[in-house]
Amino acid sequence: MAPKGVSMYVFALLIAINIFAITAHYDPDNVYTIRPAQPGRENFALYTGVSSQVTLQEYRQRKAYELFHFEYSSQPGLFYLVVEPTGEVLDVNRNTYPHSVIVGPRTTSPWQLWYLEDDGHIVNSAQNLVLDVKGGRYEVGAPLIVYQKTGYINQIFIHYKESLKA
Fold this sequence. Notes:
The chain has 166 residues and is mostly beta strands. It has one domain: Trefoil (Acidic Fibroblast Growth Factor, subunit A), CATH 2.80.10.50. It has one helix at residues 8-17; strands spanning 31-36, 44-47, 55-58, 67-72, 79-84, 89-93, 100-104, 114-116, 122-124, 130-133, 144-147, 157-162. The strands form six sheets. Strands 1-12 form a two-stranded antiparallel ribbon. It has a two-stranded antiparallel sheet with strand order 2-3. Strands 4-5 form a two-stranded antiparallel sheet. The longest helix has 10 residues, at 8-17. The radius of gyration is 14 Å and the shape is globular.
């Protein structure tokens, strides 16, 4: 069943596009932008360059801080979302509510480990909370949080493979 606010056609396309390679080590040919699945919002991408807070910014094609690679952890099925070019990883700020998504140095914290669901949810392994555009606000600077799964489209993301070659 498609998430609320998503037609079955868009949902089928989402699943088809959402297939990508998770690598054991960095591979410059496997970098991605992570963008909202909301139709008409493909011009936004996750961005990490302003502060440690992960936000939405206008997609700028192959620009640093909006590129990620997915790297397996030692725990089966879980991966780190690694920021290009810093090597920092997506993490969760547990001192805020709802918990904001931030970047930081890699540790052994389960709050830095993620897994994908077939429907486009990116799930944090610590408490099975999903990546969420806070309040469904698709605008420059909108913060990303983790939140309980609601079934709304602001929690669904597509991973677009990018090339670092000009």
